[in-house]
Amino acid sequence: MKKAKLIKKKPFELKKYHMSVFTTNLLALALAILFVKSYRLKGYSILPIFIIMLAVLAAFLLASTFILKPSGMVNRIFPKRNFIILNMLITGAVSLIFLRQIGLVGFCFTLLFAFFLFEVEHLIYEGVKI
Amino acid sequence: MNILQINFAEIPAAVQTVTGFIKENPLLCGIMLISYGLYYIYSFIHNKSVDSDIYEIDMVSAAISSIMVSMLLIGLDESSKGFNLMAMDLSSQTTKIAIFLLSYAVILLFFGFTKILPKFLVVLLGNSELDLFINFGAALLTDPDVAITGTLLLVMGAPLAILLVIQRIRRLMG
Asked: Which pLDDT score, from 0 to 100, does residue A34 have?
């Protein structure tokens, strides 16, 4: 028998990490949509905050790649791919419902805001390794 | 009405404000409450970690989300309409709350990383009920018709405080 066949796949175990990252994504998407709706109602642009958030996210990712990971403080910079897809699908689907109210920039902002917050949550958990 | 003043006669009006906001945004408020509910139920069932494991992580995470929310709040009430910090309206309630939230977040970050706070303060500052309280309060501020008063904060905070106490009793018994 080949060795590969002997390796059993670990069953999925729901941890506080999963729950925390998942619920952070939900909270972030609700907040982002509410704020974007309010900004648009007042005639304000969300673009400056979108750019700031993009820059902060880039800084976080660069710091993780070049400082946290090489020093062994985190093992993985991103959550597992399936988890990211699940979170982004939920965010995308809910944002699409509000597309007319939030516009295209608002839609992108919601995706970015949710991704940013759950990614930070992931990094915090990676850092403390629970 | 001042943010620190509580008038018990205004409780029905405050309840109506909260329920009105939920009725106006049922899906988004539902998502917020579900996110808190899921986390609460999970913590209620799996209460095996020690307090510092749970609440210190939450402190750091709440701090970062509070920074982002305060930034969004600042942008909500500045006159240039393009997120110019020099155009901040310091007289507006939203901006004052945003600055307070930002300071609170910095304090949380400091204590989250230094881990010098006594355990009961870590529990008090790092619980998810306080996080929801802040985020829901911020969400209410997106409605231009809503003014945050002490009574409104009491109406929002009281049920969450009860949930926190129940969670604490469960953890002490577990």
From this structure: 96
Rounded to whole angstroms, the Cα distance separating B57 from A125 reads 7
Cross-chain residue pair A34–B142, CB shorter than 8 Å: yes
Interval B80-105: pLDDT, tens:
666 676 667 778 888 888 999 999 99
Q: How far apart are CA A119 and CA A83, in angstroms?
A: 11
Tell me if residue A8 falls in helix, strand or coil.
coil
Contacts of A57 (CB under 8 A, 6+ apart): A112, A115, A116, A119
What the block records as the tokens of A52 is: 């700031």
Round to whole Å and give the CA distance between A24 and A36.
Answer: 18
- Kindly state the tokens that stand for B75: 């942008």
CA distance B13 to B20: 10
Complex prediction ipTM: 0.90
Residues of B within 8 A of A34 (CB-CB) are 25, 28, 139, 142
Q: From the list B57, B69, B82, which residue is nearest A124 (CB)?
A: B57
CA distance B82 to chain A (A): 6
A5 band by pLDDT with thresholds 50, 70 and 90: low
Q: Which of A13, A38, A41 to mutate to test the interface with B (most CBs of B within 10 A)?
A: A38
In angstroms, rounded to a whole number, what is the distance separating the alpha carbons of residues A49 and A36? 10
- Asked whether the beta carbons of residue B139 and residue A30 sit closer than 8 angstroms, the reply is yes
Cα angle at B162 between B106 and B135, to 5 degrees?
35
